Amino acid sequence: MALDENYSSRDYLYGRLLAIAEQIERIALSVANEKRPTNAERFMQKFAERPYTTWRNLELALAPYRERLRNNRAGFLINREKELGQVMNMFQIADFTTDTRLSGEFLLGYHSQKMAYTVKRSEEEHDSESSETAIYNNLTKN
């Protein structure tokens, strides 16, 4: 199932937030050549039980990773922060601030958001390969 950027179910939106946070931290860790689970991965169970409280902790924990990306991958960070803002704006205040347990639907939002990143990365790699092939072909014609 593809990411539905217009679907505003509380559980789905919380799943998307978790995936975006994971992506921010994952890329920041890769910039520093660190290989470990992200906070989003480590706290997924707790997040499913108490999303509002856990999201606060996860978002606050992103600060050093955001700073790292601001210095190394500013464009990436700007795009992820824009996504975070868009998802946050889709919440009804009462839905966001309640700490009731998430249904399995949050996993759909989480995995759909992660898949959207995978598809985008594949498309970017394909575009890059196509550009490199075109450059190579132009060079070899001469």
What does this structure look like?
- It is a single chain.
- The chain has 142 residues and is mostly helical.
- It has one domain.
- Helices cover 79% and strands 0% of the residues.
- It has 8 helices and no strands.
- Helix 1 packs parallel to helix 4 and helix 1 packs antiparallel against helix 6.
What would the keywords be for this entry?
globular; single chain; 142 residues; mainly alpha
Please tell me the total number of domains: 1
Fraction of residues in β-strands: under 5%
Helix content: over 70%
Low-confidence stretches: none
Q: Using the CA coordinates, give the radius of gyration.
A: 18 Å
> What is the H-and-E element order?
HHHHHHHH
Task: Please identify the structural class as seen in this structure.
Answer: mainly alpha
Let me know the number of strands. 0
Q: Sheet with the most strands?
A: none
Taken from the alpha-carbon principal axes, the silhouette is globular
Treating each run of at least 4 consecutive H or I residues as one helix, how many helices?
8
Please give the alpha-carbon distance between the first and last residues. 46 Å
Mean pLDDT, rounded to whole units?
Answer: 90
Write the SSE topology.
Layout: H1 10-31, H2 39-42, H3 44-49, H4 51-61, H5 63-72, H6 74-90, H7 93-97, H8 105-141
Please sum up the structure shown.
The protein is mostly helical and 142 residues long. It is 79% helix and 0% strand.
